[in-house]
Design a protein that fits this description.
It contains 28 helices and 21 strands. The protein is of the alpha/beta class. α1 crosses α6 and α2 crosses α6. The C terminus is likely disordered.
């Protein structure tokens, strides 16, 4: 019998090469266990046994022996799946054909699945140990019921989940053979009773925190909210909402719900998705303090690896766990979470099977981009209805995701955790909102200058910069925007918090980055007209702890130069329409907020890229599913930004020197993200053409004209052509 192999070593005698049959059986066993979580064990097993069938050829054996030839080894198994299992086998064909290059589009063009199945010829020897009757038409049945209105979407989603099981199993077995030390470094967590232990850790942490807190009305309400979260955790997996005003302790209460719920229903992990990278690190830090660092996986672009030797092991394990989200608690971004659910790439899809039977917390749920809302809701419904997940929508401004009049993919049922959310809102009301009409920039600057402690939030970075410059320079005047690199922003925020705590003068002009997860407490807040959810978030920075004798003051004004972005204009229009139809109601009440979202979602572009039409076509026997096309179109951020490194701090300068002259590690690149400002492609081109930015190794942009970075307002692209004479002399 001819011997075939999956992976080779440097030994030419093949004595320690991995036999193909061993690899196929290992991958099949792993993929079977992964898919069993959502009732598809046979699918995972079949995909694993067939995925590398094409390696049982002389051509591939020759490649392992060093011959310079390319071999398409994935189409063999894809064709076997279709031939043996018919129409449903085509779903396996997609996963098998794409297990290296990514899920292909279905179709008859040269690179598409059906062309490959028809034209990529080759014969597998009869004597290979492949268990030739691995899959038949009778073996494969769907583990859920198909509904006509979204049958295509459900099949494409299921295919992506099977693909995830296959590629993760393939990576893990290949890693175990090729890099066994790395395989040993992967973190392991005993699932049995783990969430019971984590729940106990959090309970202990919260008890200590409560004992240290003042017995204010706000803290009493926070305890009541926590109690209701723990009580509702006993309910079966489903879609929940946690509607609590800003400052009500949603972050830790929602985590308490998730851990109790996972323990009660034997769920596998908690996934906490956050829309803003500016707050993800602080949430992860709180979770680590409560539960232990080793149980929390931060997966986002701003993650900074530590230099301390005791942290090195954690950073290494964290990097491995980020590949497939194999951790009890995952803290990630909306972009990472949702774009992965629609991706076709192996690297992004590898984690998907580990989302099954999880508690998914969507922090600030209203921040899901409206133009992608319909496919996002469809994906969440799939996870709840077919993959055993619970979804918790956590926000002070609850979107109307059950509004069946406006949303085709609306949730059929949502359970609110808080028994009387209207009463909680009234009890936590700490501000008065007043609409004061248009203010010229000079008038607004004069008002802010006269306040001892005040926060002003505007809609755009240019507005924030221009307004800040109009206020007379003084101690205690600050600007905040994403034009400042993260380390710089954190330093400024720390100074602001200290001045507020010490009751010193403090005037802050900011973009909306302070509206979610940034704990600031001002007596007066000004907010440029925006959507009602943004106004509510701004109000959450006013009298946050309820320590004022009376109500905090929130003034909403119309800016001299209105924002031009269509999304902001639409939110402002819907807010105005809501207030006109409900003139006597509290503008931030739950009733008004629901009406606002109903109006906001009553538009035609809830699926601007037509993702649902792509993934939910009228099904034919060929099952043409455009995975690659949909992945390309589903992107929250259209013009992907590039981080310009600002090397003003000593650590940043040191890292840039390493970047220039040494072999640069991924950990160092992650550290530099803390010293980077994201710019659009046009802005980067302007910086490069003016000589203000140097591109190191043709990949990493570094600011070399420091005059372009203002210590108060951050990166100023419009100053790119202005140089400090002393710099030029040097």
């Amino acid at each position: 019998m001819r011997s075939y192999y999956a992976h080779s070593t440097e030994n030419t005698d093949k004595s320690d090469w991995q036999p193909l049959s061993e690899h196929l059986l290992n991958v099949a066993e792993l993929a079977e266990s992964f898919a069993a979580v959502f009732g598809a064990a046979q699918w995972g097993k079949s995909a694993g046994l067939l995925h590398d069938a094409g390696k049982a050829t002389e051509a591939f054996l020759g490649r392992l022996e060093g011959k310079p030839q390319r071999v398409d080894h994935s189409t063999f198994g894809a064709r076997l799946a279709r031939d043996r299992a018919g129409k449903l086998g085509l779903l396996l064909s997609y996963a098998i054909a794409g297990h290296h290059g990514g899920l292909p589009d279905g179709g008859d063009q040269e690179t598409e699945l059906h062309f490959r199945l028809k034209h990529k010829h080759g014969k597998i020897p009869n004597d290979v140990e492949l268990l030739p009757e691995v899959v038949t038409r009778d073996d494969l049945t769907l583990p859920f019921k198909l509904f006509r209105e979204r049958s295509g979407f459900s099949l494409s989603f299921f295919t992506r989940m099977i693909f995830s099981c296959l590629v993760d199993a393939d990576f893990l077995d290949t890693e175990a053979f090729c890099t066994p030390q790395q395989a040993q470094d992967r973190p392991t967590f005993g699932e049995d009773k783990l969430f019971h232990e984590l729940r106990q850790r959090l309970d202990k942490f919260l008890k200590a925190k409560n004992q240290q807190a003042d017995s204010t009305p706000v803290n009493v309400l926070r305890q009541a909210i926590l109690t209701q979260c723990k009580e509702k955790a006993k309910l079966p997996p489903q879609v929940f909402t946690l509607t609590v005003p800003t400052g009500g302790g949603k972050t830790l209460s929602s985590l308490a719900f998730a851990l109790d719920h996972a323990a009660a229903h034997d769920l596998r992990r908690v996934i906490y998705a956050i829309p803003f990278t500016s707050i993800i690190e602080q949430n992860a830090k709180v979770f680590q303090e409560a539960l232990g660092q080793e149980y929390i996986l931060e997966h986002h672009c701003n993650y900074k690896e530590r230099d301390a030797s005791e942290e090195n092991g954690y950073d290494r394990r964290r990097g491995l766990a980020a590949e497939n989200w194999d951790a009890p608690v995952v803290v990630t971004t909306n972009v990472q979470f949702f774009e992965s659910l629609f991706s076709n790439r192996t690297s992004r899809c590898r984690k998907l099977h580990n989302i099954a039977r999880s508690v998914i917390i969507l922090d600030e749920a209203q921040a899901i981009p409206t133009e992608y809302l319909e496919p996002c809701l469809a994906a969440l419904r799939e996870l709840v209805e077919n993959y055993g997940c619970t979804v918790l929508l956590c926000t002070a401004t609850q979107p109307a995701f059950d509004d069946k009049n406006s949303l085709r993919m609306a949730f059929q049922k949502i359970t609110e955790i808080i028994d009387t959310p209207e009463q909680v809102y009234k009890d936590l009301r700490r501000t008065e909102v007043k609409f004061i009409g248009q203010l010229l920039d000079a008038e607004l600057a004069d008002r802010l200058a006269k306040e001892r402690q005040v926060l002003c939030i505007v809609s755009t970075k240019p507005q924030a910069k221009d307004l800040f410059k109009q206020i007379p320079e003084r101690e205690g005047l600050f600007h905040l925007s994403t034009n400042m690199y993260p380390v710089h922003r954190r330093r400024v925020l720390d100074t602001i918090r200290t001045r507020l705590k010490e009751n010193k003068s403090c005037q802050v002009v900011s973009t909306s980055l302070v509206e979610a997860g940034v704990d600031l407490d001002f007596p007066v807040v000004y907010r440029a007209m925006a959507g009602l959810d943004s106004i509510a978030q701004a109000a959450g920075r006013c009298n946050r702890e309820g320590r004022m004798d009376g109500m905090g003051k929130v003034f909403v004004f119309e800016a001299e130069t209105p924002a031009r972005m269509p999304w902001i204009k639409r939110c402002i229009a819907r807010a105005g329409e809501t207030l006109r139809t409900m003139p006597d109601a509290d503008p931030l009440s739950l009733k008004v907020m629901r009406r606002y979202f109903e109006l906001l979602y009553d538009v035609q572009d809830l699926d601007r890229k037509q993702i649902m039409a792509l993934l939910n076509p009228k099904l034919s026997k060929e099952l043409h599913l455009p995975f690659k096309e949909a992945a390309h179109d589903f992107r929250f951020i259209e013009d992907e930004s590039v981080g310009v490194i600002i090397a003003k701090d000593p650590e940043a300068r040191k890292l840039v020197q390493e970047l220039r002259y040494t072999e640069f590690s991924r950990s160092s690149l992650r550290k530099l993200q803390q010293y980077s400002v994201a710019v659009r492609s046009k802005e980067l081109a302007a910086l490069v053409s003016s000589g203000a930015v140097e591109i190191i190794h043709e990949e990493y942009p570094v600011l070399c004209n420091e005059a372009v970075y203002d210590d108060d307002v951050g990166l100023c692209v419009d100053l790119a052509k202005i140089w400090d004479p002393e710099v030029l002399i040097k």
